[in-house]
Amino acid sequence: MDTARGAAQAERAANQVACLRLLADADEARTVGVISEGTGLSRPTVHAVLDDLLDAGLVEPTSPATAGPGRPARAFRFAREAGLVAGVDLGPRGARAIICDLSGRRVGYADLAPDRHADLALIPRALHAAAGSLDLRRLRAVGVGLPGVVEADGSLRASLALPGLVGLPVAETLAEELDRPIVVDNDIKLAALAEQRGGAGRGHSDVVYLQIGHRLSVSIVLNGDIRQGRHRLAGELGAQRGMRWTRNAQRGQLVWSVRPTGAEVLSAAAAGDADARAELEDFCAQIAGRIATVLLVVDPEVVVVRGGAAQDSGALLRPLAAAVEKELIFPERPPFVASALGREAVVLGAVGNAFDRCGSGIYGVHGYPSPWHHITHPAERTTK
Fold this sequence. Notes:
Blueprint: H1 2-24, E1 30-31, H2 32-39, H3 43-55, E2 59-62, E3 75-78, E4 84-91, E5 94-101, E6 106-112, H4 122-131, E7 139-146, E8 149-150, E9 156-158, H5 170-178, E10 182-186, H6 187-198, E11 207-212, E12 216-222, E13 225-226, H7 262-270, H8 274-298, E14 302-306, H9 314-327, E15 336-338, H10 345-363, H11 372-375
Parallel strand pairs: 4-7, 7-10, 11-14, 14-15
Antiparallel strand pairs: 1-3, 2-3, 4-5, 5-6, 8-9, 11-12, 12-13
């Protein structure tokens, strides 16, 4: 009996997912007949499913216009505005927040600088700024990205960028304050997840993500999941004693001579500055050995690199790929491609991670897929 009941529940959930996906992908309301045809389910089954989704507040009936005599067919739409899901990227320079409706479409955005220093209080501030006139009581889950080693329970074990938050139970504290489920993870791991789900790594299950900014960071997605490791240290190459990416790195911070920041060096190199190109080539030669080691351990399908403005990416990708190639014996190697999501990769990964990990609670439907195609769609992102 239990087996039969379980099978029936699984079939019911699958039918709910099929109907809800069809409605979520449509811009207009759909009749029972159209839903039946689109899902392959019988009309009685569609009626039963719609009753469940109506009770859950996920769909609502509409009254479509009809041509000719007779009672118009009932139509239904996905009530995407019924709930909200948010993501926040908190770093030493401020917080970036995105709010999405249940379809994954962006409905709110904010980028806040801290008054003095970044702390947890900046997260609710960023959420309220992003919400504007939206009612945050509709918020169903929040994802957060932090720089540093994040434990499975959402506490921050170590962080050079936010030392004041080390040891704090971040997820628990925010959950109590916001009265919502909170999921917290490392910022670079979330960026890698977003690029794999809907960015430059889309369509690939194994992705290495390399970010070259104030620091150099690596994260790995294997079989479509963030590689955490037993102690949540996967990709934390800076945790090796004496490890320095470059000769002039200072406590993990990259130091440049031609321009103040890596992004400015990259822009200058792309514009033809010989000194900037020389510094970039030397930088790539210095980091190539460790990148090659990661590639030989993981053997990914693609390496996604974020290092500055998208239009300048070629000035970095070419010398980096050439330097790594010199370190490898075998001709097989993954392509190096520029990040598609740029500065928003972390916050997009944070909101997508909230959908991934809290999906059943967000929708009240088991097995409904996270709407990554809307979360990361370029036409629906704010270019930064």
